[in-house]
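Continuing the series of single-chain predictions for the mutant panel. This is the parent chain; the variants come on the following pages.
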Amino acid sequence: MNSKIFRRYGTSFQSVEMDFDAKALNDIGFRRNREVAIPVADFEAAYTALGTVELKTEAVGPVQYETKQVLLDRLQAKVEELIAKLPTGGIVVVENESGHDYPKTRQVTKNIVERGENKLHFEYSMEPSLRVASFGPLA
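Parent structure:
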């Protein structure tokens, strides 16, 4: 199985791909790729929880789109780092639920004066954290 990222949809865990795009309405996204679907009972019989982490990041810069994309790239790197540390056969599960506690980017725009010119300065953060659980195969 090549899929390493899953989300729960109803009675099954389904494989997803990261879809972090600063131009999208839902910039922190996970898109179902329909490669693997595991019923909850089978999942619980095959995997054991290794731990949960809350991922958060920030970015600051002078260009709105680029600053937001830096935040998303950093978040993606953190997820990829977590996947790289998994044991053989391990997976991660995104625990945040759409419409309930799903992370969103937050923007603060400041007007700064630089060499006598007014310039915009963007600060991006995310709230709440992206909660990702690691699972390893049962022996």
